[in-house]
Amino acid sequence: MKDIRRHWVLYTMFLPVAIYFIVFAYIPMAGIVMAFESYTRTGGMFFSKWVGFDNFHYFFASGKAWLVTRNTIVYNVIFLGCYTVFSIIAAVFMSEIRSKFFKKMTQTLMFLPYFISWVTVSAFVYNFFNYEYGIVNKILHYFGMEGIDIYSNTSYWYFLLPFLYVWKWVGYGSILYLAAIVGIDQEIYEAATIDGASRFQRIMRITLPLLKPTMIILILLGLGRIMRGEFDMFYQLIGNNGLLMDATDIIDTLAFRSLMGSADFGMASSVGVYQSVLTLIIILTANWLVRKYDRDHALF
Amino acid sequence: MQRNRKRMWLMLALSVMLTFTLAACGSSKDKETESSGSTTDTTKATDTDSKTDAAKTDKDSSTAAATDTGIDHSKEVKLVGYLLGEAPKGMPEVMAALNEKLKKDINATLEINYIGWGDIASKYPLILAAGEDVDFVFTADWNFYVQEANKGSFKEITTDLLQKYMPKYYEKQDASAYKAAQVQGKQYMIPTTTPDRKVNVIVLRKDIMDKAGLTNPTKISELEPYFAEIKKDYPNMTPLNLDSQYDLPAPFGALVSEKFAYAGAPGDSGDPSGVGNYMDLEDPSGKVLSITDEPVQGAFKYAAGIMKQWFDAGYVNKNPYSNKVRSKDNFCESKAGVAFGNSIDIQATLASCKEKGIDTYIMPVLSPSGHAPANSWLNNGVAIAAGSKNPERALEALDLLMQDESYVMTDYYGIEGKNYVLTSDGKLGLPDGVAAADNTYPPDAAGFWFVNKDFLKPSVSWTDSYIDLNNKVKDYLIQIPYLGFSFNSDKVKTEIANLKNVSTQYFLPFAIGSVKDVNASFDTLVSKMQAAGVDKVKTELETQASAFLAAKG
């Protein structure tokens, strides 16, 4: 209490965030009970029939539980890796650019895809790669080459999905890292320059090591989303295309597809609970690992 | 300290206020976008009036309850209905006309909102579950009727209610329709009094048929030369330009129908016949068939074989999953070589082709015996939402909208002189200077499919072949043993969920012919279906089906 009085400004600043999380994260947590109920309109969220783990049954009986869990994790690890690497590279480049105009220009252009929704992106992709009249195939035909059919071939997607993900998010990520770079004490660079360090050496020896704390925190935060597939992306780009599904099905799309028609809220929440539990385990493990090796940078 | 605390409370109050104003901004914006999508026509003033009134009615509904003799209309109410599809451009004017009448007759105004075709599966249950401001909603056996009724989303409809509030309807309706609409012994739907008389059709272009040397084809499998001709001479046209929803299983279904009377439910519906259990619709014993039983297995392999040939020959668009445009909607634009539809919804296509000077040929999709199943009452209907505040008034409004000729002409055809004219011989025509393509309120487009269709008129734009087809439809239709049967998937929802998933992943590629090997992928489909529990669904389906047949006698 004394602490609150002394730092009341800080606490007030924290207040909106606290309210946000209480309203949108902690209160809805009570909804977890729905995963164990057979939801009816009259029973509502808390008074429907209790069915225990019945709602979880369908997910594991689908025979795809392991496949989609693996896909979700693998895709997200690749996404997170590519996103981190490319964001850092972009941020470092950006910090080394001297021309202000060029810098602002690239930043804006890189940031732009962040505002485009996946629905629109899927329209782009469709018009680029559509077999009958897509731009790519028109160009290939022009040079007398065979057209490609990405919608019945899984291999293209292993490249295309991470590429699109990076394209969309790298502008956002690079700004986070750029902010961290700007925060690095300029005197260190000056000292290094005087000592005769080349630009490359300055990046490798000063910028990157000093970015490590930011990186660890952002990765740990990113791990929190690792079980939540990028639903918009997969759903919009792949949709109901059965041929691609073994390679591109994630937990979210599987649940959406199977439960769409039945609108069974209990079964849908069971998938959410499954994801949350796994996420909790992953975060605790990752944080434990970080704490073990680098105590200062752990989240908690 | 004291001062600090005061300041803190001030800050808190401020931030709370800010949050609320922000929230208010957000929600009012929401409302704006919502109403721009919907179609209220009442002016702002009456709008708010009716809202407060509705609230009032709600408050003192106990005291204002109608007496037995008459129905109390003293409180004005605003009713909200949800239909499927999209609001036609001319909707505001039509709603104004309807509301003028409704206000006079039952002191109510109506607002109609639409659930777009692509959003039905996600939005329809949500609107009902959220207990949003909704009084009545379109429902049908193919549109979640049984599932939602099971969940208690609809208000029970009793004979007393119908007699009292829907006298016109009650007089017209066949008693067995009520029985068909029962879910676990209770009726929740107000089914149409006039089940559609329609068959699925395939529309071809006469000019291409002539070039391909095709005269009077009756089966889809005979169309190979037609497709080849398109591939050769029409580089911008895809013979089978399928969309992700309706068209995708359509050619496959038509091919299977050449072998036995196949229902061909869409892959993502809860209907078990879409996902692994089938019936020969004309088999009087009503035996439930697995995919491995004959004639299903043979017919499926036959159909998939042909589809694969066509797919490999480039007659099918490569990615129908991402295509949202139905073939009937770009058929006249020369993008699709074939239009799929039914004999009712294809009218607009035929009319606009006629205007463009494209001659069409219509081919009904029939079973080997030359028949098509008659539609059940449940094919189109309307239900009262469980959360409706004015169910009685909603029923009265529906009675007028469905069974009063002047209302039906307005809600189905629009405004006379603007959207349609009646010719001297009682046919429906377009006013001078209006083309079918720019009619702001095309017939059938507004989603009032549950109206009494005996009031509908023949159209002057009908082509001879369409009139011919329409005359024959009666003879094509037969009463199938399972007319009016709807499966209650409550006990097997786990299996149904998994089967739907299998259907999307393994059945759809099989049906459009994009698989590498027909036999191998058939075997995969079978094994995946078995793993998903198709046999359990079959047992449940057999139980319900035999109970249905026994009750029918």
Automatic annotation (TrEMBL), chain A:
Note the Pfam families from the entry: BPD_transp_1
List the CDD domains: TM_PBP2
Organism lineage: Bacteria, Bacillati, Bacillota, Bacilli, Bacillales
* Chain ranges of the ABC transmembrane type-1 domain: 69-286
Gene3D superfamilies associated with the record: MetI-like (1.10.3720.10)
Q: Which residues cross the membrane?
A: 12-36, 73-97, 109-129, 166-185, 206-227, 272-290
| The keyword Transport belongs to this UniProt entry's keyword annotation | yes
UniProt name for this protein: Putative aldouronate transport system permease protein
Which UniProt key words apply to this protein? Cell membrane, Membrane, Transmembrane, Transmembrane helix, Transport
Which processes are annotated in GO (biological process)? transmembrane transport
Protein family (similarity comment):
Belongs to the binding-protein-dependent transport system permease family.
Q: Name one GO cellular component term.
A: plasma membrane
**Subcellular locations according to the entry:** Cell membrane
Entry membrane topology: Multi-pass membrane protein
Q: Which InterPro entries match?
A: MetI-like, MetI-like_sf, UgpAE/MalFG_permease
Asked whether the UniProt record includes DNA repair among its keywords, one would answer no
Automatic annotation (TrEMBL), chain B:
Q: Segment Disordered: which positions? A: 28-67
What's the domain of life for this entry? Bacteria
Q: Which InterPro entries match?
A: Bact_solute-bd_prot1, DUF3502
Where is there biased composition of kind Basic and acidic residues? 44-61
Q: Where in the sequence is the signal peptide annotated?
A: 1-23
Keywords attached to this Swiss-Prot or TrEMBL record, sorted alphabetically, are:
Signal
Which part of the chain is the DUF3502 domain? Answer: 481-550
| Protein name as it appears in the record | Putative aldouronate transport system substrate-binding protein
Which species does this protein come from?
Paenibacillus cellulosilyticus
Highest lineage ranks of the organism?
Bacteria, Bacillati, Bacillota, Bacilli, Bacillales
